Amino acid sequence: MVPDIxxxxxxxxxxxxxxxxxxxxxxxxxxxxxxxxxFAPDPGRDPDPQVSLARLTAALDLRxxxxxxxxxxxxxxxxSVRTAPGDRRLSDEEWDAIAQRIVHAxxxxxxxDPDGCRWIAVRHAEDxxxxxxxxxxxxxxxxxxxxxxxxxxAVCRRFEEEMGLRRLNxxxxxxxxxxxxxEKFKAERTGRPETSRVTLRDAVRQALAGVVTEEEFxxxxxxxxxxxxxxxxxSGDALGYNVALPGDRNxxxxxxxxxGSKLAPDLSLPKIRQRLxxxxxxxxxxxxxxxxxxxxxxxxxxxxxxxxxxHAAVLLDGDDDEAAAQLVGVGELLDAIAQTSPxxxxxxxxxxxxxxxxxxxxxxxxxxxxTWAIHSAARGIIQAGHALxxxxxxxxxxxxxxxxxxxxxxxxxxxxARGHAQQAQASRQAAEHLRTVYRQAAATPMxxxxxxxxxxxxxxxRKHEAxxxxxxxxxxxxxxxxxxxxxxxxxxxxxxxxxxxxxxxLLQQAIDMRELDTxxxxxxxxxxxxxxxxxxxxxxxxxxxxxxxxxxxxxTSANLTSELMAVxxxxxxxxxxxxxx
Length: 581
Known about the structure:
This protein is an alpha+beta fold.
C-alpha cells in the first residue's frame, strides 16, 4: 500500500479532477467513502453534481476563508493511497477506515479533536482513494504536519499486515524523490520513455563517476548535453547547482530546472564535495593496471577494477559500519561501467546502476571513509573509454561483472543485518540485472573454455578433475553431468600450469579469497579468479606457452602469491590438441 502526499492551493480544481473522467477516461464511479463528519456533499451521488461540487468546495474552504491571511498559501493537502497489484479489492468501508487512520496519524484530524481539519476521501477506481484536506483547524490555527509522509507510510504498513495485503518494504527517508504525476503525464504526452527527473538523476550520477574536482563534474554535465546553472555566493564560491534537459520547458517556455538535492539526497553540492574529499585521487599516481601487451585500455581497467571490487566485498562481509562507504563506491563503479559498455549490455547495466543507487544510501555513516581505490577504479574505467563487447574487452567485462554479482549480494546481507529492507531488496534486484549482463558477456569465452577443457588429453583432464574434487568436495565430477560443468575450470587449471603456476595452490588461493555460497555457478567464479590471479587472458582464444623445463620449479604456496604479478607477458599461441575421441 503506497501513500503519495502533495500540497496545492486550488481546492475546487482538485475536486473537479477527482470527480471528472480523468486524463485518459480512467476514472469510474467517483464517490465519497469518508469525510470529516460523515455528512459532506457527494457530487458523485447527487443528481446535480455541479451544485454539489460547489457546496463541497465551500464546505472544505470555509475555515480557510475565515483565517484569511493566516491560512497557508498551499492550503490543500492531498494524499493518494494505492494498493499493490494483485491485492484484493477493498470495500468502501475499509477505505474509510484507512482514510480515518491516516488523517489521525498525520495530525490532519486527530481522533476526538473537534477542531481537526476538514477532509474527504474520494474513490474513483478499485485500487486507490484520494484524501483531500484543507489545512486550517477549527480554532483557525494550522495543523502540525511534521513527517506526515513517514506517518502515513507507517499506517499503510500496519494495514498491510491487518488486512492481509502485500507487504512492502518500509522506507527510512533516504530514498530519492519519485517523479510526480504531472511529470509522468508529461513524459507520456511527449513520448519520452521516462520522466526528466529520472533521466537527469542518471546523467548526474554518471557525470560524477570518477571525478576529482567540482570543475570536472560541471564540465562533464555540460558535455553530456545538459543545461547547467551554478549558484554562486557574493564571494564567487559555488553554493549549488541546477540541471535541465534541453527542450524541457514549462508553459511559459522556460527551462524546467532541478536542483541536485531534489534529484537525490546525496546529489546536493555539499554531499558531492564530501564524496570528492573521501575519494580523492592523486592524478599523478594512478593505480597500476594489470598489463599485458595487446590488452586494450578498457580491458586493463576492468581487470584492475575486479581486484578492487573483491576487496570491497571482503569489507562488506566483515559486517563493519565503515563498509557503508564501499557501497557508495560500488554504485559509482556501476555508473562508470554502464556508460562505457557496448550497447548490447548497456541497458541492463544502466538498470543495475539505477537499482543499486537505492542501496548506496542509508542512515549509517562511515566515519573513516576510505574509497580511494574504488574511486580510482571508476575513474580508470571512464578514462579508458568504451569497451567492445568481444575479445579481451568482453572477457574482462564478464570477469568484473561476475564479481559485482557477489558484491551486490554481500550488500544485500549487509543491509539486511541492519534492517534496511528497501536497500537490501535493491541490492538483490541489482544482482539479478548483473547476472543477466554476465550471461551475455561470458557466453563466448566460457564456451571456448568448455571446448578447450573437453579437448584436454584424458590423463591431464583426470588430473585436474581430481584437483577440483579435492579442493571442492561438493563438485563430484563422477556424478552425471558434473564433468561438463568443470570443463572450463579444468581448462583454466591446465593453462595456469602452462604459465608456470601450481594449479592446486592457485585454486586453493582462489577459493580462499572469499565465500562462494552466493555464487550461482562456483566453477565460473573460480575460472575468473584464476585467470585474474595468473594473468591469463580473459578471452581464452590464446593460452600461454609452457615455460622451459626447470625455469619455475620448487615453488611453494608461501612464495606463489609474490610471483603472481611476475607472469611472463609474451604473446602466446593457442593450444592445438586433437579432440578427445
